[in-house]
Amino acid sequence: MAPTDRPLVLDDFIPYRLSVTSNLVSDSIARAYESLFGLTIPEWRLIAVIAETGGITQQAIGARTLMDKVTVSRAAIALVGRGLLARRDNPEDRRSHLLDLTDDGRSLYAAVAPKALDLERRLFAAFDPAEVAQFVAMLRRIERVTLDLNR
């Protein structure tokens, strides 16, 4: 039987498994970030990307995280409103702004980042480090192949 001739069994369908697993992990993270820090997942992603990059545009955040521009915009507005992000003029493009963490934003990142790393450690504690490295490598390959398929 050719691979395309096999019946679709949702529970064995890899894209479905990826989605279910991603949702479980994201929901777990979302509950923790919301209860501890009052952050949504998109808000946390913005804070983390900005902490890694320094001043960055919303468009660049969207490209880096694959979040749509409405989600990025809403998260940025909320974080600016909370005093965690600041907007400044973009000297390279006057039509856009650069986002930076404020002092409060940097403090929040310093509090959240160790908790994020601890959650990752707990999620993968039962796996050998080589398995985790192989898993991450495979996820990156899947991402590249999927991006290529969508071009």
What does this structure look like?
With 151 residues, the chain is mainly alpha-helical. It has one domain (3-149): Arc Repressor Mutant, subunit A (Orthogonal Bundle), CATH 1.10.10. 66% of the residues lie in helices and 7% in strands. Strand 1 and strand 2 form a beta hairpin. Helix 3 packs across helix 4 (69-81). It starts with 13 loop residues before the first helix and ends with a helix.
Number of strands: 2
Largest sheet: number of strands, sense, barrel closure: 2 strands, antiparallel
With strands numbered from the N-terminus, the spatial order across the biggest sheet is 1-2
**How many structural domains?**
1
In the CATH hierarchy, the architecture is: Orthogonal Bundle
Outline of this structure?
The protein has 151 residues and is mostly helical. 66% of the residues lie in helices and 7% in strands.
Q: What does the secondary structure layout of this molecule look like, with pairings?
A:
Layout: H1 14-37, H2 41-53, H3 58-65, H4 69-81, E1 85-89, E2 97-101, H5 103-123, H6 129-149
Antiparallel strand pairs: 1-2
